[in-house]
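Issue 218. Parser rejects a valid record. Input:
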Amino acid sequence: MSFFTDMLSRLTDVYRKDPQSNIGKVIKILTDELDLLKTTFDRIEEWRDVEKAEGAVLDDSGMNVGQPRGAATDEIYRILLRSKVARNFSDGTIDTIIRVISIAVNADPKEIRIQELYNDPNNPEPAAIGLIQIPLRKLNEVGMSPKQFVQIVQKTVAAGVRVANTELSGTFAFASHPSTIENSDTAGFADENGTVGGYLGAMFVDSEDSNLPV
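Output the parser choked on:
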């Protein structure tokens, strides 16, 4: 119930409870201002949530956890804030790294796979890990590059452990037979509107992308 309807209903029966009456118009002037105040207070309450806050309000949240924004957009900054909070409780184990990554990019932990490289058959490295499965779509949604994502992961692992490589998994796949349509919504070529079809994966290669303040 709006302020106007509520206040009008509370009038005694000696008054006309008609919105177009003189008393109704006076009440409307007052309740319009109350509605604006309520909208403002609702937004203040809503923006306590990092997922909904924007601009300077996000910066204030970053100050509370010690995470500067740098040149990050709101979307990327939310990832930095989520990962910062999660990293504060990280013990450097594989399970914890997966949990931090899943929280940072809002992904299911089952979508993330990490391999320790100390026993890699081709290029063993005693203090290194490889991210062999990360959902690329989560980075695409916020415009984060693979290099920027690796920066976050590097801050999550234990000191002295290197993030050697990152494979960002896609969903594109060909059908098993030319005349067969399989998983057209998530695996094949996209339509003109890009509403169906899969997307390609990627391999992290160091580049000149802007660094994040992590």
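Fixed in the parser; the record now loads. The chain has two domains: 3-46, 55-203.
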